[in-house]
Automatic annotation (TrEMBL):
It is an enzyme of class 1 (oxidoreductase). Keywords: Dioxygenase, Iron, Metal-binding, Oxidoreductase, Thioether bond. Its cofactor is Fe cation. Its EC number is 1.13.11.20. This is Cysteine dioxygenase. Binds 1 Fe cation per subunit. GO terms for molecular function: cysteine dioxygenase activity; ferrous iron binding.
Length: 238
């Protein structure tokens, strides 16, 4: 297992730096422009990296996202910011102290996560046994990763990498890379911005000790566009 920390935000590309979003609303608008009528799965590797650079170039300002920041004691919440064009979802997740998600896949979706406040830890795992991602884009279109994925041992999930993510840093994962868990290891609240492309409603979660997989319930939002929903927040998946 490798352990990494990111002490500073990744440098944005020249293109991203020239057109850095000045607010969360501006970022939403630029994501619509970038994705247009197609999602990342229909685009090339360079387009995935461009979206990542765009998210990196936005500097978090709590005045932008406080209206979407809704906590629930003892569990994380998923708060919809923008339903996109049917090709992506943009949401804010709120993490109380010492809360973590289950280990999970992303149902073939691309996931980009930016820390808006506090610190978070990403723990990556190898797919258990003979299981693996299905119905995915070609591996040639997946951005390169440096984390190795050792052979899965019988029983417990195989932890391959842990990364501490700080303010304004962005992480990317896809089922071709592996599974992951997000946790807030601190004693303070943390907030993150997530882009899922394409959107999805269910995924698989994995027992850390046995590697047994099960389907999640339907993923629902705690709030949508800042308004509280009547249905309870799903605690199944990040």
């Amino acid at each position: 297992m490798s352990t990494t920390t990111r002490d500073s935000a990744c440098d944005a590309s020249p293109a991203a730096a020239a057109a850095a979003p000045t607010s969360l609303a501006d970022l939403c608008s630029m994501l619509h422009q970038e994705l247009g009528d197609k999602g990342i799965n229909e685009m090339a590797k360079i387009d995935v990296e461009r979206i990542k650079s765009l998210m990196e170039s936005y500097t978090s300002d709590c005045n932008d996202w406080t209206q979407f920041s809704h906590f629930d004691e003892g569990r994380y919440t998923r708060n919809l910011v923008d339903a996109g064009n049917g090709k992506f979802n943009l949401m804010i997740l709120c993490w109380p102290a010492n809360v973590k998600s289950p280990i999970h896949d992303h149902a073939g979706s691309h996931c980009l996560m930016k820390v808006l406040g506090g610190d978070l830890k990403e723990s990556r795992y190898a797919w258990p046994g003979k299981m693996g991602p299905k119905a995915l884009m070609p591996a040639s279109l997946i951005p390169s990763v440096t984390a190795s994925e050792p052979a899965q041992k019988e029983g417990a999930m195989n932890l391959t990498q842990e990364t501490i993510l700080h303010l304004d840093e962005v992480a990317y994962i896809h089922d071709k890379i592996g599974l992951h868990r997000i946790s807030n290891p601190t004693g303070e609240n943390s907030v993150s911005l997530h882009l899922y492309c394409p959107p999805y409603e269910t995924c698989k979660t994995f027992d850390e000790k046995t590697s047994v997989a099960r389907g999640s319930g339907r993923i629902v939002f705690f709030t949508e566009h800042g308004e509280r929903k009547n249905s309870p927040c799903s605690s199944i998946m990040q």
